[in-house]
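Design request, tokens follow.
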């Protein structure tokens, strides 16, 4: 700023339009930042943002320390990711799902799943392309589609009989000649829905029939309590058209490390990498070696993680029901969605902003995950990836809602 501009407010600054790219104009500070700041300010229990309150396995953390001390990853790692991690990812896909990927050409390591989603959409979507996404959706989906110049087309999951369901006819009707890809998330955040084999088979058949690409966000693949996780890439005709995304944060409780990955055909990986290289280029060097070791943990680790979170789901769900919420018990993820209307409330934003003062608990309004804000208005999400004593404390605090004491 020149001295003249600084002293004379009448001088027009050297820009004529809003500073923020218009593609991002609808996106402000994320709700997670707002609600976490509210938790800090009020001292409330933060069940809004989805991060554990304990670290993951000690042996995995020590693997990162060892990599740091040994000088592995302290400088730029290879662009696609360190070979040890890419091999571990390929081995994981083969062992868990029978999917064969070449670690040299069909695996790409990213700065968490968020970068993988952004890079995939930036690489595959052009202005005018339509992207179908299940609504409610993780907030970075909308921003990434917007940055790519695409048009998002929401297909809404709706609550019924204690769970959320996908209307397959609505999904089919959403496809137009402008549809480029389907952005699929299962296990689904925030609803906890795990798509069934029949539902995924229908999605796969639709993608093949209409020659669509599919980007699948499968970061909660190991957090399934009811049913099973089935990668869409394992269905007929889907391996060559599916970009599969996962990450280490949710599975190993080291969300701050931001180590994610893409598995796909060489052509798709090359395409995604073309965008990814201009985002972070590389990241998390020493942590990549640690995650390679984490992926080789025994099956008992994954079973214990699932069983522990299933118990925590049930603790929080019971507490929320006792407080007067209608609870949609999730089949997967570590989030539970509730309806606040039985409490005489209907505005999730107002409810969540007042809840810390009323009860000392922070949650997130689901409306932020909707294009159709009215459809998400009465729903609120709580995270249960916390210590059991914290969840019990939160449940006791929330019970004051039922008595009207709050």
């Amino acid at each position: 700023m020149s001295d003249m501009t600084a002293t004379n407010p009448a001088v027009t600054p050297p820009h004529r339009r809003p500073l923020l790219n218009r593609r991002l104009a609808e996106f402000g500070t994320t709700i997670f930042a707002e609600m976490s700041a509210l938790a800090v300010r009020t001292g409330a229990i933060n069940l809004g943002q989805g991060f554990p309150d304990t670290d993951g396995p000690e042996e995995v953390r020590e693997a990162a320390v060892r990599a740091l001390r040994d000088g592995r990853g302290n400088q730029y790692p290879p662009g696609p990711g360190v070979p040890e991690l890419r091999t571990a990812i390929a081995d994981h896909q083969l062992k868990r799902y029978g999917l064969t990927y070449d670690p040299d050409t069909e695996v790409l390591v990213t700065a968490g799943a968020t970068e993988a989603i952004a890079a995939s959409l930036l690489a595959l979507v052009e202005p005018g392309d339509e992207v179908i996404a299940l609504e409610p959706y993780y907030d970075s989906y909308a921003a990434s589609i917007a940055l790519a110049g695409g048009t998002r087309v929401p297909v809404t999951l709706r609550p019924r009989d204690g769970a959320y369901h996908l209307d397959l006819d609505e999904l089919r009707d959403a496809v137009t000649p402008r549809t480029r890809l389907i952005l699929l998330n299962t296990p689904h955040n925030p609803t906890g829905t795990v798509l069934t084999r029949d539902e995924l088979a229908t999605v796969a058949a639709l993608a093949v029939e209409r020659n669509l690409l599919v980007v699948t966000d499968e970061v909660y693949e190991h957090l399934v309590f009811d049913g099973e996780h089935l990668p869409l890439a394992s269905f007929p005709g889907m391996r060559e058209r599916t970009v599969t995304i996962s990450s280490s944060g949710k599975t190993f409780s080291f969300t701050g490390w931001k180590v994610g990955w893409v598995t796909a055909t060489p052509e798709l990986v090359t395409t995604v990498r073309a965008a990814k290289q201009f985002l972070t280029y590389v990241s998390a060097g020493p942590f990549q070696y640690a995650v390679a070791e984490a992926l080789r943990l025994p099956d008992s680790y994954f079973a214990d993680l699932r069983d522990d979170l299933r118990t925590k789901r049930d603790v929080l769900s019971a507490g929320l029901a006792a407080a007067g919420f209608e609870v949609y018990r999730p089949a997967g993820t570590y989030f539970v969605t509730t309806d606040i209307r039985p409490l005489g409330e209907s505005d999730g934003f107002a409810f969540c902003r007042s809840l810390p003062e009323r009860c000392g608990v922070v949650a997130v309004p689901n409306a932020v995950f909707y294009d159709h804000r009215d459809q998400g208005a009465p729903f609120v999400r709580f995270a249960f990836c916390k210590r059991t004593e914290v969840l019990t404390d939160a449940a006791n605090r929330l019970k004051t809602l039922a008595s009207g004491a709050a």
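Comment from the thread starter after seeing the answer: thanks! The mean pLDDT is 94.
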